[in-house]
Design goal:
By secondary structure, the protein is of the alpha/beta class. It is 41% helix and 21% strand. It has a 10-stranded mixed beta sheet, with helices on both faces. A two-stranded antiparallel ribbon has the order 6-7. The longest helix is centred in the first third of the chain and has 19 residues. It is globular and about 60 Å long. Bound molecules: adenosine-5'-triphosphate and magnesium ion. The site of adenosine-5'-triphosphate has 14 residues, from loops. Homodimer. It is found in: Cytoplasm. Its main location: cytoplasm. This is 3-isopropylmalate dehydrogenase. Its cofactor is Mn(2+); Mg(2+).
């Protein structure tokens, strides 16, 4: 039987509550479908700091590196506001991203029919929306050198950040976008600012060349990132996969996310390069939301973002396409049935707890 290793890092705040609902699904899939998931659980963030003084231990880092996929909850909270900077909860996630070399951040924006009226956009603009933003996560202006504040000596200072992209970085991120497009509607739109940025000129050239060499079956278009932001709000359904750099992707993925509503609904995936020997990509799946300390421990957390992140894990790490689609349908069905956690509560709906939402999704899946 195939075994599939999952390393669970529930983290802090509502992280563990949301992860518990995924664990129910894993147990069911093992028992009823012979899925062969082997799980191990570690500590990250504030809970790891409390246990051993680091945001993630070396032992847990090794487990994360060895697993087929990592499921990550959320980290942080006011309890750890005073801890040293390099040991703060977020340092655990940054360490994972860096060591696992997770260069591709995937953020889907899906409109669940039952929630279409919760969007600030008109129903016809948003209904049926299913787009995927692929953001480069390890390069660009967030990491380029020089990066400093220089004292100019005349009462003036100069803040410097440098946008740097090399050919290989653009090739690998666009490769991910093209491959994902093949499993979807077959369209990629690449966004940069080639009219004012040299890195944008190179981005455009390399995406175009990668497409011509390996992915000519996919439809490729280009848009300036500012126009792209406008089009994303005007008529988002024109897009399938959007591929863009770290900075533009940071902003555009937040815009795309809010097209569809609550923070409690949004999953994400971060992928690394394929392993030379096995061809498997390192991968980490996490909800977009944080640890929400204000509602932690009260059964109020919406587990859908975490569960939808697990659906992405099924699809991208294990090619369990049918199971992923069934799980996403189960989420949609439970919403259609009118079940809501507090954050997405609306008129005439039935308010449920974190565990009740998880149980209902499991029942709809099973
Ligand atoms: P971080 O810095 O970790 O990203 P943040 O300050 O952006 O955190 P979150 O923790 O993501 O904030 O949440 C902001 C607020 O949104 C929370 O205080 C909570 O009220 C609400 N929220 C976030 N996630 C959920 C969820 N899964 N279910 C219900 N409410 C949520
Ligand atoms: Mg945040």
């Amino acid at each position: 039987m195939t075994t599939r290793s999952l390393f669970l890092l529930p983290g802090d705040g509502i992280g563990p509550e949301a992860m518990a609902e995924v664990t129910k699904l894993i147990d069911h899939m093992n028992a009823a479908e012979n899925a062969g998931f082997v799980t191990d659980t570690g500590l990250v963030g504030g809970s790891a700091f409390d246990a051993h003084g680091e945001a993630i231990s070396e032992a847990d880092m090794e487990k994360a590196m060895a697993a087929d996929a990592v499921l990550f909850g959320a980290v942080g909270g006011p309890k750890w506001d005073g801890v040293p900077y390099d040991k703060r909860p977020e340092a655990g996630l940054l360490r994972l991203r860096k060591d696992m070399q997770l260069f591709a951040n995937l953020r889907p924006a899906i409109c669940y029919p039952a929630l279409a009226d919760a969007s600030s956009l008109k129903r016809d603009v948003i209904e049926g929306l299913d787009i995927l933003i692929v953001r480069e996560l390890t390069g660009g202006v967030y990491f380029g050198e020089p990066k400093e504040i220089v004292d100019l000596g005349n009462g003036q200072k100069r803040g410097i950040d440098t946008q740097v992209y090399d050919t290989f970085e653009i090739e690998r991120i666009s490769g991910v976008a093209f491959e994902l497009a093949r499993t979807r509607a077959g369209k990629v739109c690449s966004m940069e600012k080639r009219n004012v940025m040299k890195s944008g000129v190179l981005w455009n050239e390399v995406v175009t060349a990668t497409h011509a060499a390996h992915y000519a079956d996919v439809e490729l278009t280009h848009m300036l990132a500012d126009a792209g932001g406008m089009q994303l709000v005007r008529w988002p359904k024109q897009f399938d996969v959007i591929v863009t750099d770290n900075l533009f992707g940071d902003m555009l993925s937040d815009v795309a996310a809010m097209l569809t509503g609550s923070l409690g609904m949004l999953p994400s995936a971060s992928l690394g390069a394929p392993d030379a020997a096995t061809g498997k990509r390192k991968a980490l799946y996490e909800p977009v939301h944080g640890s929400a300390p204000d509602i932690a421990g009260q059964g109020l957390a919406n587990p859908i973002a975490m569960i939808a992140s697990f659906a992405m894990c099924l699809r991208y790490s294990f090619a369990m396409t049918d199971e992923a689609a069934r799980l996403e349908s189960a989420i949609a069905k439970v919403l259609d049935d009118g079940l809501r956690t507090a954050d997405i509560m609306g008129e005439g709906a039935r308010k449920v707890s974190t565990a009740e939402m998880g149980d209902a999704i499991l029942a709809a899946y099973a």
